[in-house]
Amino acid sequence: MNQKIYLILLSLVMCVNCYSGGDFKAHRGTVSGSYNFWFLDPEDGGSHDSNAHFPLLIFLHGKSLCGNNLEKVRRYGPINAISKGLCIDSYILAPQNSGGAWNPQKIWKIVEWAKQNYPVDTTRIFVYGMSLGGYGTIDFAATYPDKIAAAMAICGGASVRNLDGLSRLPLWIIHGTADRAVPIAQSDKVANAIKATGDDSRLIYTRLKGIDHGRPARIFYMSQTYDWLFSHCLSDEGRPVNRDFEYTPQMLNVSYRELMNLENIDTSNIK
Question: Which residues, 6 or more positions from 89, have their beta carbon under 8 angstroms from its beta carbon?
């Protein structure tokens, strides 16, 4: 077995064996002027330790999951991954966009709700997303670069004009060169904008040769995704990016069943 694949499998086995006591709960109309959303409290059903502050992970979905049916957000991403056995030891926020570009201010309203109601570690707030959610991730991180510990944008781009703030936080951009739904040129523009600030030291840009639009959804099911995100903190001196991880086309070509013994999940139409 390829050593890299073996390490991924070992990491996943270790992650699946950890305990998460919470279930995702649907919130409709909970935060005025914002999105409906799913929220996971990993200690749901137990008593909150006043000294235990969990990180907060925000998942932004793609265009195909937009609408007013929250059940659609279960299709792929962290809700689906956890239902298949992956453990993500954090609060998880998964809003549903009714349509159009993600609005950073609306997302932040839900973050504020989470901070008011749960002992969120405010130095460890993370965001990741794919396709339209990749755009949303870039827009959100560019709007709140000093409040987001790290971000991962998958096959997306940018809608906001001012991207200067992206140079201030660890950011991993991932895009397949064979993506026909969102051309890789969109991620190129974001990377070039960061380079134009004169400081791209916190940027990782992975161009996956021959990878299409749907296959990178497998990243949501890999424990190393969460290991990378959670390795960052706002209090890190200089806020360096962790470069100890990588994604390759070979890794994404491993089937879900090989990675996690999951049932086959069709990502061919993810947008």
Answer: 18, 20, 42, 54
Instruction: Provide the residue type at 209 as one letter.
Output: K
Q: Look at the block and give the residue holding tokens 């991207």.
A: 163
Structure tokens at 240: 């360096």
Per-residue pLDDT of 170-182, as tens digits, reads 999 999 999 999 9
pLDDT of residue 52: 67
Nearest C-alpha neighbor of 38 from the set 85, 81, 89, 91: 91
Fill in the DSSP letter of residue 145: T
**Which ranges of the chain would DSSP assign to H, the alpha helix?**
3-16, 78-83, 104-117, 132-143, 185-196, 223-230, 249-252, 256-260
Cβ-proximal residues to 184 (8 Å cutoff; 6+ apart), any chain:
155, 175, 176, 177, 207
| DSSP 8-state assignment for residue 241 | P
Residue pair 60/128 in contact by the 8 Å Cβ criterion: yes
CA 52 remoteness from chain centre: 22
**Given a cut of 70, is residue 43 above it in pLDDT?**
yes
Phi/psi at 215 (5° precision): -60, -35
Its pTM stands at 0.88
